[in-house]
Task: structure prediction
Amino acid sequence: MSYETVIGLEVHVELLTKSKVFCGCSTEFGKDVNTHCCPVCLGMPGVLPVTNKKAVEYAIKAALALNCEIAEYSKFDRKNYFYPDLPKAYQISQYDMPLARKGYIEIEIDGNVKRIGINRLHLEEDAGKLVHEEGKGYSLVDLNRTGVPLIEIVSEPDMRSAEEAWLYLNKLKTILQYIEVSDCKMEEGSLRCDVNISLRPAGSEKFGKKVEIKNLGSFKAVKRALEYEEKRQRELLTQGFEVVQETRRWDEARGITTSMRSKEEAHDYRYFPDPDLVPMIIDKKWVEEIKTTLPELPDEKKKRYMRDFGLPEYDASVITSSKSFAKFYEECVELYHDPKIVSNWVMSELLGLLNEKGMEIDEVVFKPADFVKMLKLIDNGTISGKIAKDVFKEMFETGKDPEVIVREKGLVQITDEDEIRKVAQKVIEENKKSVEDYKSGKEKAFGFLVGQIMKETKGKANPQLANKVLKELLG
Result:
């Protein structure tokens, strides 16, 4: 029997507000433990939470960017459960009346556009953080994160492979970074993801037993965990066993999922409306005002790059997948006449070095103006394209001005025809076999001879001039 994979994602995103969602404590990351706390976020008796309007605004902004319908009326609920880093023994969240519903994200898979539905987007508070000291029989609790505003984005079970889930997650992250409601740094916990996966007989409408996977610290981990769990469930079903509905943990070191606990249902949390917080009535006029603040989103930007800059779809997709990368590219294009040449360089040389070093575009030490200055050095014949690659690497590593690098390393292109002629004559004398091959019709031999000229001049000979002189000498 063949089986179909069904995947849904629950993504928790910390919002970039300066203060917490129900009190005035700072949300700044990385400060001394338990210094950004107050009686409200610590859940002391008799305190009253007050909703942070900026957090609601950011949540609405995210919902609009994800094509959701905004509820005119929504409320906060208490989600009751005990955990060491949850001081109140309940979390303020939203249950049956969330802020937004019925959204979607479009991903591209195998050359086709697929729409992934978003069931709901709601606002809630974060819990604290447990600190586990190696070798100790206890854990410490840091409550700085308690009360930091979160949005939870729950997808529909529309994904059918680990690849689709990975693409969805990347697209979601890109959109949220574009609208600047979150930095989405998984390493700092500002984007966290739980995945649900089940298998069902191909063609069946009924869902299989769902397994939730936690402890996913990177997008790569999400993909690997789903691939492993899909294989595990398929083997169980093929052998005639049942899949147990449970929560499992991803073990990064071993590359497997392990059982944590049986799966809780919603009624286990004993949700009820929070009596300390008034319901939210969202004014349509306010929603329209927030909508006007939305920037150009990735899909729109991609279409514009293809239309206005003549970029291939792949180039446009890669460049617009990061707001910072797109910003760097556009700043270069404003200073340079050919968007495609800029694209060629950022897609090959810049992206190659970023991947090699494991860096983000924000960490690059040179400015777009320096990059364009280097391109203009090629245009005016000061350096060759080959030399430019060496200059670019030096710029990437040191941040130096390209003109300074060229001057210090003596990389100025040789454009003196007589000087190139002398080198060409030397190459002809030392490579008589290649000369004979060329004269007998083997065009590749000519390329070899030009290469020898470039080698003799350490890449500094003007390639066009080298070609011209060599052809003249070979008759």
Notes: DSSP finds 15 helices and 16 strands in the chain. The chain has three domains: 3-289, 305-409, 417-474. Residues 77 and 239 are 43 Å apart (CA to CA). The radius of gyration is 29 Å.
